[in-house]
Amino acid sequence: MSTYTATDFDPPVDSGIQELQEEKDGAVCAYCGSTGTLLECCRCHATLCYGTQTDCIQDGSNLIDSESFVCPVCRHRAREPLDYRLTAYVVPGTYFAAQLAPLCLITAHFDREMYFGSLARTQLRQDYGQIPLLLHDYSVRLTAEGLGWSLTNSTALASAWLASNRASAPMVLVSLETHTDPATGYVAYGRTGRGQNYVASVPEVVSKVLGPMYNQLPLLTATRGLVLFSCGDAVTVPERMHEIENLVQRMVQQTL
To answer: Residue 246 phi/psi, 5° resolution?
Structure first.
């Protein structure tokens, strides 16, 4: 672990590690946003509206067993026929959602609010809205104490999610938005009370953010991606660029 002194351009941060927890909103239809009468899919837990002529599920709804209801996306994925009719405007979206692969999104940022991470989460939550269990994401704010304790639960849950979706070739996308030490090219992942930033190589910070999942990456067969938002020194210092290249190479290897 190294440190460098933060500049006046670095805004103040809160102390401690803070993991961003999303508050769960009230249930709405995954297809149209309706808050009317809803059915919950017993496989993916997506909710769909039914019961009226304007709802997403039409005829046959009076015969549907709410305990065993299977949404159209899950039926498409399992190549099972529908025993109910959908409103026409939601049909194309169900076929699109049925083609999606499981995706684990991990976003980490320093003291400023996320840019790419926020955009990615918003877009992906919309894309996966009809089959929410195929998207798993967590977001970490890198603050004064550096990384560590509060990540344990999130990384454990994400590791279990990857394991449960292994047969479906899950994808992993990591977004890291932080500062760079201009002298060394190391990236920041925390700050001391005296205004010094904890810094390390990009692979070291990524391994801290991912926890035990870091060693799972080479075992995956689907897409693995890294998006780095930082100052140019992280890639213009030859040693740092070489470390990033090695990380990318490691992420795509099929064996440890």
So the answer is: -65, -40
Whether residue 97 contacts residue 128, with contact meaning beta carbons closer than 8 Å, is answered with yes
Task: Return d(Cα 3, Cα 200) in angstroms, integer.
Answer: 8
Quote the CA–CA distance of 61 and 83 in Å, as a whole number: 9
Q: What domains can you pick out in the chain, each with its CATH number? A: 2-23+101-252 (3.40.50), 38-98 (no CATH)
Q: SS3 of 138, please?
A: strand
Strand order in the sheet with 2-5: 2-5, 196-200, 187-191
The pTM (predicted TM-score) of the whole model is 0.73
The token duo for 224 is: 């693995």
Q: Helix, strand, or coil here: 242? A: helix
Q: Which two tokens stand for residue 132?
A: 């929410």
Contacts of 85 (CB under 8 A, 6+ apart): 57, 58, 59, 60
Please count the CA atoms within 13 angstroms of the CA of 12 that sit on its side-chain side: 4
Q: Residue 93 in contact with residue 32, Cβ under 8 Å?
A: no
Q: Is the Cβ–Cβ distance between 187 and 205 less than 8 Å?
A: yes
d(CA 75, CA 94): 10
In angstroms, the Cα distances linking 186 to 67, 183, 201, 247 are: 53, 8, 5, 14
Instruction: For residue range 117-168, list pLDDT tens digits in order.
Output: 889 999 998 888 888 888 998 888 886 555 555 677 788 888 888 888 887 8
